[in-house]
Predict the structure.
Amino acid sequence: MKLSTRTRYGMRAIIELAENDRKRPLQLKVIAQRQDISAKYLEQLMVVLKSAGFVRSIRGAKGGYLLAKAPNQIKLSDIFHCLEGTVSTVECIENEDYCKRAADCVARQVWTQVQEAIENVLQSITLQDVVDRAKGDKALDYQI
């Protein structure tokens, strides 16, 4: 499974906002520069994150973007699903009709377990956990 640029960049941008700790709005160009992301592409991502309720924007000279909720209230799984969609390791997990062997396939059982593990990890981590890890306050605690 390979994450899209949309998810990787969107996650980096929202982590940047979380590290800002809602002190003041961050301008799009500042986030883009710090994260080495195209400002045009980042603008598209922020529209998606804003419409999903993760970020809010403030207009004006001192405007920019802030998290809409506290970092401890935002799970990585929520951001992931907003940007990437569902976690999917193979087609036959979502659609048994994709393969005639799906009902009895041992490999499918393994891919299902991998998919569930990814989902569980993303579900168990909040933005605050990531911020804490970046600050060295604590290590992330999850198991696969």
Notes: The mean pLDDT is 89. Strands lie at 55-58, 64-67. The CA atoms of residues 78 and 123 lie 8 Å apart. Residues 5-135 form a domain with the Arc Repressor Mutant, subunit A fold (CATH 1.10.10.10).
